[in-house]
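Problem 12. The chain below contains 366 residues. Write out its predicted structure in token notation.
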Amino acid sequence: MYNHFCAGENQVEVTSTISEIKRMGFRGAILTYAREIVVDNRTEEEVGKGMLESKNETEVEKDSGIEAWREGVLTTVEMVGEGDILALKLTGAGPAVSETLSSGKPLPKQMVEALAEVCSRAVERKARIFVDAEQIKVQPGIDAVALGLMRQFNTNGRGAVVYNTYQAYLKGTPDVLAKHMEIANNDNFVLGVKLVRGAYISSEPRQLINDTKEDTDDSYNSVASGLLSQRYRDFGKGGGAKFPELELFLATHNKQSVLAANELQQSRVEMGQPLTKIQYGQLLGMADEVSFGLLQLADITAKEKGAKGMAPTEVYKCLSWGSLGDCLSYLLRRAVENRDAVSRTKSEFSALKTEVWRRLKSTVSP
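Solution.
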């Protein structure tokens, strides 16, 4: 299971995996250091591999959890290249950071300095940064950190370098996104939006989650459509607020969602309408029929309309790296998400056959 879902335990293994991803036609890799803390909201218990069990106020200044996170993430930065994306899981820095995120207190100075160092190094390597969504207990704190980084790095001349992650399975997400769009307008930065359905359903308070999967699908597709159409809530509508500078990354395994988004984007190209930059991503080891299907669709569209008549279709694979212990929580979430894997096997097999044929044709074509 580790080899199927994780990129490797060291730099040699990870860079080899990334090279293979790009060789298959993907735009790049989203790489994250897997270490994290998981909070069970039903018991308030924190669990995490390699984390310190407790921390008093005098110890926070020299927190070994933050330093271990800093070293691990800086190692991760050196594995990504131009066009790749570094994903940050803030709770991986240990209980001191997790506590400040959940309480609304400022991050420890040591963590602020670590984030500045990590983000600056990623920019030097021409990589972007995703701030991962986590459990609702810490999410408001994570949002505040992400918005602060966007103010610093997402200038109008540079575009979205830092993205925040929005989970469509939470009832409050559409309102949170609208608030962040207002902040981006007021503070004059480009809002980076990574849209996911969510992966913490087993440990979140049930009343905060959409009542049905269909509700989550509707929320996801509605947000994506609104951002691509540049008409979301009152933003972009006559008499409403200005639609902010915004870039969108759809991280989803849902074939209908990505096809609908791609179709909408291509139709806006044909009609000469303003575009929101969009890219797509799926996890390593999952939804290959979606990933390869997008690559194949891009090939078909390019042949039919030519490169100038289409919006670019750029697809990424999301990879986690670390020891088995570091990756344990990540692997458990993948196991939950793969409960319906059997139902997808036939479509994945068909997609893989088509992808093999696509590569063979590209090899022999003049």
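Discussion. The first helix runs from residue 2 to 5. Students who got a different answer should revisit the alignment rule from Section 12.3.
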